[in-house]
Amino acid sequence: MRVGVVGLGMGLFLATWCRRLGMEVVAACDRDPGRRAEARELLPDATLVDEWTALLEERLDAVVLANDFDEHAPLAIAFLEAGVHVLSESAACVDEQQARALLAAERRSAATYSFAENYVFHPHIQLVRTIVEAGEIGRVNLIEADYLHGMAPDAVASLIGDPEHWRGRIEPTAYCTHTLSPVLALTGALPTEVAAYPVDSADPRAAVVMLVRLDDGGLAITRHGFLQGEPDSHWSWFSARGSEGLAESVRAPGERAWSVRVRKDSWTDPGGNVRDEEREPAPLILPDGTRAESKAEGTVRILEGLRACVEDGRPPLVPVLPAVAASLVGVAGARSLRENSRPIPMPDLLAGAAHRAP
User: Fold this and answer.
1) Where is region (Disordered) located (predicted)?
2) Judging by DSSP bridges, how do beta strands 140-149 and 62-65 pair with one another?
3) Which of 256, 231, 204 is nearest to 150 (CA)?
4) How many Cα atoms are found within 13 Å in the side-chain-facing hemisphere of 221?
5) What whole-number distance in Å separates Cα of residue 226 and Cα of residue 276?
6) What does the radius of gyration of the chain's CA atoms come to, in whole angstroms?
7) Which of 77, 133, 271, 287 has the fewest CB atoms within 10 Å around its CB?
8) Full-prediction pTM beyond 0.70?
9) Sign of the C-alpha dihedral computed for residues 220, 226, 228 and 229 taken in this order
């Protein structure tokens, strides 16, 4: 399987994992000569170029897009039109027009679009999904998800205050897919309305809370940005409350942060007993027989999913519709912030369009 990579920051990490999992990285692109030089050390046999359009001339089965956060959709559309399978590492789109263009391009293409949302496949979120799918906590009606960094104030200011960095130019709600994508994967729902609130009105760019209504009737509360007390499970904490119980990742240090607490109250038990237990996720064993780091499991599963799309004709693990839906929540959230936290309806992405079955 021949893979190309655009962007050699996060892209070099993904390229290294591609090679470790048995894929051939044959071409890569970055405008920064220093990054290309670093990539030469790790990808000695790959063609390295400074413009992504050159990768369209390569004989690729798939491309990994790891360029700047808010510049993925035009590249994804171009590669889909060339019949190349796409794995997009960051926001799928920055507005509704891009969303609809990407949906249309994927429908026309013989290739597939996959969203590289590794948080959907983190161990604690996978374990919550298993609990929900087994019916242990009943119908899910409230989900909470955090993606938080506990950085020092000067470090935060230098990052989101730098207009030359993508973190400095995007809206404070934009980087929401690490919270929204797991919500949509767990429920199979789509968002219908978004209201966003700054955590601190004196510093509104630092952290936001969003209330997201889902089309299955449930509600999601997401928190992301820069707040103290970041979770040890790769900055992620996740909770699902159902009609018969609760499943939430454990707020604990180290490896225990990947475990999940299950709580069912006495009325759900014929014997009147409260059930409150902690479960550890099963380890992921790599093809070479070693155990994957917990924080790398999502990346491994996403890349293996891409290979299954290319080699076995399997559908994407996170397909294009939930990808653009999660990304557009950030767009609606930004508008909500500008309009004094007014609830903003989401566009109907299904109107007039047929999509591949997930």
Assistant:
1) 339-358
2) unpaired
3) 231
4) 8
5) 31
6) 20
7) 271
8) yes
9) positive
How many other CB atoms are there within 10 angstroms of residue 108's CB atom?
Answer: 11
H-run or E-run covering 308: helix 297-312
What is the rounded distance in angstroms from the CA atom of residue 154 to the CA atom of residue 221?
28
The pLDDT value given to residue 353: 52
Burial 287-321, CB ≥16 within 10 A → b, else e: eeeeebebbbbbbbbbbbbbbebbeeeeebbbbbb
**What residues form DSSP beta bridges with 49?**
29
Within 10 angstroms of residue 345's Cβ, the number of other Cβ atoms is: 11
Tokens (6 digits) for 20: 């470790």
Count CB neighbours of 175 within 10 A. Answer: 21
Does the structure show a pLDDT above 70 at 355?
no
List Cβ<8 Å contacts ≥24 apart for 67-76.
67/6, 67/7, 67/11, 68/7, 68/166, 69/166, 69/167, 69/170, 69/174, 69/175, 70/94, 70/166, 70/169, 70/170, 70/174, 73/98, 73/99, 73/101, 73/102, 74/98, 75/6, 76/102, 76/105, 76/113
pLDDT score for 350: 84
The count of other CB atoms within 10 Å of the CB of residue 58 is 18
The rounded distance, in Å, linking the Cα atoms of 265 and 276 is: 8
Q: Give the pLDDT of residue 352.
A: 52
Tokens of 356: 């591949």
Span 344-355, average pLDDT: 77
Residue 36's CB is within 10 A of a number of other CB atoms, namely 19
- Encode pLDDT of 165-213 as tens digits: 878 888 999 999 999 999 999 999 999 999 999 999 999 999 999 999 9
Separation of alpha carbons 134 and 38, rounded Å: 46
Distance separating alpha carbons of residues 68 and 88, to the nearest angstrom: 11
